[in-house]
Amino acid sequence: xxxxAKAYAAQSAKTPLAPWEFERRDLNPHDVQFDIxxxxxxxxxxxxxxxxxxxxxxxxxxxxEIVGRVVAVGSSVKKFKVGDLAGTGCLVDSCRxxxxxxxxxxxxxxxxxxxxxxxxxxxxKTLTQGGYSNTIVVHEDFTLRISDKLDLAATAPxxxxxxxxxxxxxxxxxxxxxxxxxxxxxxxxHMGVKFAVAFGAEVTVMSTSPxxxxxxxxxxxxxxxxxxxxxxxxxxxxxxxFILDTVSAPHDLNAYLGLLKPKGVMxxxxxxxxxxxxxxxxxxxxxxxxAGSMIGGLAETQEMLDFCADHNVVSEIEMIDIKDIENAxxxxxxxxxxxRFVIDMGTL
Length: 348
Ligand code: NAP
Ligand code: ZN
Ligand code: ZN
Known about the structure:
The protein has eleven helices and 17 strands. By secondary structure, it is of the alpha/beta class. It folds into two domains: 210 residues, Medium-chain alcohol dehydrogenases, catalytic domain (Quinone Oxidoreductase, Chain A, domain 1); 131 residues, Rossmann fold (3-Layer(aba) Sandwich). The strands form four sheets. Strands 3, 4, 5, 8, 9, 16 and 17 form a seven-stranded mixed β-sheet that branches. The protein has a six-stranded parallel β-sheet with strand order 12-11-10-13-14-15. Strand 1 and strand 2 form a beta hairpin. The site of one zinc ion (ZN) has 5 residues, from loops.
């Protein structure tokens, strides 16, 4: 049966999020329906609800760090039963047939992935709606298994902040003996620190906020650099093997590339609204690599969740009521998050 979902939605880029209702589809044979208990607040939610990326469709129910409990399953579902914990990240479907889909890179589906919100189902007409809502219907292949060993609310941010930092660290084989910088200590950044530490690297947090130093050390970071302090920046020139850039606002990549050793790698995961300016010398001098990374495929997301369950890795969270979402967005825009807001969906 079609379900009327309760939600908070943006009706346009200029209007604040407000209560809204919409229909979740009838269950197809392979669909799982789960009631959403917690949803993390990603900076991408803010970028898109405010129309900062220029690709937005409204009405928009943001939210792609979704965890909850299964309340119904389609007739052919094998992976889940009613009562199980379940999660969904940034993807709810893809074509499953193209080269990317066949290689576990559903986020790069050549026929267009279905993002969890601000996107379309595979029929290319039905708008998807995300996790700032009380219930969701997702194909079982795009529903993740969630361990009951971890705090559930603190697990939600793994579905985006977790996989987005885990994936590039794995791709570039970051580990023991390497010096790693994580730029920006927010939702993504603090997960990047936890994973890089868990993988055995020496980790430096590079932050605009001097008052985050103590937290950085508690997260396992070995060093802390205040990026506005020229002397501190100079002290790490040519120092790093790998830099993970999670910054959400415009900043100077050239300055960070100068902190890499020759042949060092910098991966951007942050997506500021305006283009970067890059000087060729920043890459050429030292044969450096500048790369990007976008979330992760389904198999890798499950691998990351299982790693977190085995190694007791979760996010540091501040729980909020859904009615406080606009305030949370404002604090996030100012870098005032320690280190992920998670909405208690029971407050909807
Ligand atoms: P967040 O929690 O707001 O963290 C961003 C951090 O960047 C802030 O805490 C701050 O850390 C730093 N920062 C903010 N403004 C800055 C400025 N003007 N100059 C330098 N540093 C600044 O955001 P998030 O949720 O981690 O997301 C970060 C970015 O990643 C966003 O652009 C988001 O859209 C993007 N994202 C990308 C993917 C992907 O697949 N690639 C997935 C999810 C999110 P300090 O206080 O430590 O400086
Ligand atoms: Zn996200
Ligand atoms: Zn595909």
